[in-house]
Amino acid sequence: MEGADWLHVDVMDNHFVPNLTLGVPVVESLSKATDTPLDLHLMIEDPDRWAPQYIEAGAGSVTFHVEAAAAPVRLAREIRAKGARASMALKPATPIEPYEDLLPELDMLLIMTVEPGFGGQAFLDIMLPKIRRTRELISRHGLQLALQVDGGVSAATIERCAEAGADVFVAGSAVYGADDPAKAVRDLREKAETATAAAGWGCAH
Q1: 180 is catalytic
Q2: 88 forms bridges with which residues in the sheet?
Q3: Helix axes 47-56 and 72-81, enclosed angle (nearest 10)
Q4: Are the CB atoms for 94 and 66 separated by under 8 Å?
Q5: pLDDT tens digit string along 50-99?
Q6: Which residue ranges does UniProt annotate as crossing the membrane (predicted)?
Q7: Is 3 annotated among the ligand-binding residues?
Q8: How many domains does the chain have?
Q9: N or C: more exposed end of the chain, with fewer CB within 10 A?
Q10: Does the annotation count 167 as an active-site position?
Q11: What is the Cα gyration radius of the chain?
């Protein structure tokens, strides 16, 4: 995937979400097949148990869902201790405010802009205020915390995400469904950079 900074890998267990994808052995094979860092998104039950194995398989970044984690602070610290970026994901209905005190424990926060489980879903505009509130919290605490969005990100939606405060963008169908995936990545990056430069939050980032 030419031009992408990371490869975002969705791990689903058919329990936390209603879909089944891949597991540790496939991630291990992927890590051997590419030099692009792997960004693992664990949409699974019991990430406290499984996350360390994905780091050993080659993941440079591991995202767990706070709704599934038994001990999110302990898990984030374990992920970091093993040398990967620790990221926490929130489903659309999960508010950010109860987790404000956890933010310093993280390297990235993922706001889901669709219900997790399937690709190709339409972007949920009602998530934009949540992205803005999250960016405000990050800025208020002076954190160097990446804010990722995942779900329905495309040429038609990426500018709104960037303007709201996101700075890491997961694009699936918009890239893999394009005639020229590399050009799609370039176009998305250009739109995001332009929107960020014009946004108030981008000046202080």
Answers
A1: no
A2: 64, 109
A3: 10
A4: yes
A5: 999 999 999 999 999 999 999 999 999 999 999 999 999 999 999 999 99
A6: none
A7: no
A8: 1
A9: C
A10: no
A11: 16
What DSSP designation does 86 have? E
Please indicate, yes or no, if residue 205 is contained in any of the structural domains: no
**Annotated binding residue 118:** yes
Tokens 């390297």 correspond to what residue? 107
The residue from 10, 39, 107, 167 that is catalytic is 10
Instruction: Answer yes or no: are the C-beta atoms of 81 and 105 closer than 8 Å.
Output: no
- How far apart CA 53 and CA 142 sit, in angstroms, is 32
Place of tokens 């869902």: 65
Q: Residue 148: give its domain's CATH number.
A: 3.20.20.70
Which amino acid is present at 131?
I
Residue 187 annotated in ligand binding = no
Structure tokens, 149:
């969005």
- The pLDDT tens digits of the residues spanning 146-155 come to 999 998 999 9
The residue written with tokens 């148990």 in the block is 49
Catalytic residue among 39, 150, 167, 179: 150
| Residue 134 lies inside a defined structural domain of this protein | yes
Range of the domain at 22: 7-199
141 belongs to an annotated ligand binding site: no
Residue 45, pLDDT > 50, answer yes
Q: What six digits make up the tokens of 168?
A: 């890491």
Q: Is residue 2 part of a domain?
A: no
165 is in an annotated binding site: no
Place of tokens 């996101």: 166
The reply to whether 204 falls in a domain is no
